Amino acid sequence: KADAVSADVWCYSAVINACAKSGAYKRAVDWFKQMQRSGVSANLVSFNSVIHACARAGRVKDSEQWMKEMRRYGFVPDEMSYHSLLYACAKTGQVERAVHWLGVMIKQGLRLKQKTFNNVIQACANEGFIRGMEWALGEMRERQITPNGWTFGALLYGCRRSDEEDAFQKAEQFLDLLVALDVPVSGSFLLKNLVELCRKHRRRDRLSHWVRELVSLGARPDEKIEKQLRAMGYAKDE
């Protein structure tokens, strides 16, 4: 009988997780409640699955509420629980909540990863909060966690969204660090943000230099970016 109950928990968790991946957070919540009504005891995985479902939908308050419910049932949130919350904060630009949950993770001695800080940086980036991005990047490097291409994509995006006067200068500082660390990048996201930054701050004079640097690290412009680069006077053979 114990094995059967255990199997039921995992089956429900799998369904809840499938709902999360498809973006159907309400269905995920419904399945969790159905599990409880069926007399099947929730476990850490099933709680994490429903938190993840709410987080993917950007439902920060709902995610936090389910974490409270998890604790009420005697389960201790783990790295997955907090990373889901941070993802929700990143998606919705809720900087204060992201910083709060990062602080909780640090206080509890949980293992911090690239994605931990990347989510905090993304939350700040969505609000154009450069000082917050600098703080999170500093915390990341202090713990000897190397930023990746995703990190720098978020940093440039944040500078692009910012209305601060020194946004372009800060963006160049981030780019200097990217080059110094020799971080491999791919795709066109960094180039897209670079183009928009140079256009916004009327710094076409810096465009060619940074395009060459990004391309040398692996960035590749798509057709749309190539068209924008030509319109701004950039030539590949410069």
Structure write-up:
- This protein is mainly alpha-helical and 238 residues long.
- Helices cover 72% and strands 0% of the residues.
- The protein is built from 13 helices and no strands.
- It has helices at 2-21, 25-37, 44-56, 60-72, 79-92, 95-107, 114-126, 130-142, 149-161, 167-181, 189-200, 207-216, 223-231.
- Helix 9 (149-161) packs parallel to helix 11 (189-200).
- The protein is elongated.
- Residues 1-7 have low confidence and may be disordered.
Highlighted features:
238 residues, mainly alpha, 13 helices, 72% helix, elongated, disordered N terminus
How far apart are the first and last residues' alpha carbons, in Å?
A: 73 Å
Instruction: Provide the gyration radius in Å.
Output: 21 Å
Strand content: under 5%
Q: How does the overall form come out from the CA principal axes?
A: elongated
Which structural class should the secondary elements be placed in?
mainly alpha
Helix content: over 70%
Compute the number of helices.
Answer: 13
Secondary structure layout:
Blueprint: H1 2-21, H2 25-37, H3 44-56, H4 60-72, H5 79-92, H6 95-107, H7 114-126, H8 130-142, H9 149-161, H10 167-181, H11 189-200, H12 207-216, H13 223-231
Helix pairs in contact: 1-2, 1-3, 2-3, 3-4, 3-5, 4-5, 5-6, 5-7, 6-7, 7-8, 7-9, 9-10, 9-11, 11-12
